[in-house]
Amino acid sequence: MRTVFSFMRSLAIYHHPVSFLRWRRFYRKILTPGSLAFDVGAHVGTRTRAMRAAGARIVALEPQQPFAGFLRKTLPRDVTLLPVAAGSAEAMSEMFVSSRHPTVSSLRADFVDEAKNAPGFEHVLWDRRQAVQVTTLDALIARYGRPDYIKIDVEGFEMEVLSGLSEPVPLISVEYLPAYPHLSSAVIDRLTELGLCLFNVVEGETGEFRWSEWQDAAAIKGWLSNLPLDAKSGDVFAQS
């Protein structure tokens, strides 16, 4: 029952028509019809559906059950859904699952350990584990082509995902968690290594860029480091 309740709770929060409309409007500004996008960590599919409604072709990754099963039944047939995770190498791995808060399930053990003392995670318990297949962004590119955009939302596993990418792509977004500023800083460095040197953010589910002008790495790091630890999460966008 707990898993069913948590699944329905995630649907109520994230699979919401207002959120979908905001993201569809947003993606219509940054994607063109026929663009290829990878959605790494699709969860309930709100971003996948919004990108698809904007005319993009989508490869969506979601290994966690029951979300992968839900997406298989409900996503448009022209969306490629893969019930796998992305990481630094192709392998089998273990996901630490929170039955009550499945949105924060993670493949990173130290993320789970650190969360015990992180603001906003006080009531989260990772009480199950799930074996998952892991692929790499490079392997996905070899199979489906170079994407115009990659969205990454993987609860602390961002660096491992980006380690599996060896070539630049035009646009990448990565979730930031204010309680983990050191992870965000490392992500900015990695994105810069990949040739993406201009940054902007979308706070929460607003579907709007914070700044009209894109920022450099130092500016975005400074902004992230000054966020209250209990602030809402959001997405860092990076482009070349």
What does this structure look like?
This protein is α/β, with parallel strands linked by helices and 240 residues long. The protein has one domain (2-239): 3-Layer(aba) Sandwich (Rossmann fold), CATH 3.40.50.150. It is 36% helix and 22% strand. The protein contains nine helices and ten strands. The strands form two sheets. A seven-stranded mixed β-sheet has the order 3-2-1-7-8-10-9, with helices on both faces. Strands 4-6-5 form a three-stranded mixed β-sheet. α7 (158-163) links the parallel β7 (149-152) and β8. α2 (17-30) packs across α3 and α8 (181-193) packs antiparallel against α9 (217-225). The N and C termini lie far apart (46 Å).
Keywords:
240 residues, alpha/beta, Rossmann fold, three-stranded mixed β-sheet, 9 helices, 10 strands, globular
Layout of secondary structure:
Blueprint: H1 2-14, H2 17-30, E1 36-40, H3 46-53, E2 57-61, H4 67-74, E3 80-82, E4 85-86, E5 91-97, H5 109-115, E6 128-135, H6 137-144, E7 149-152, H7 158-163, E8 171-176, H8 181-193, E9 198-203, H9 217-225, E10 234-239
Parallel strand pairs: 1-2, 1-7, 2-3, 4-6, 7-8
Antiparallel strand pairs: 5-6, 8-10, 9-10
Helix pairs in contact: 2-3, 8-9
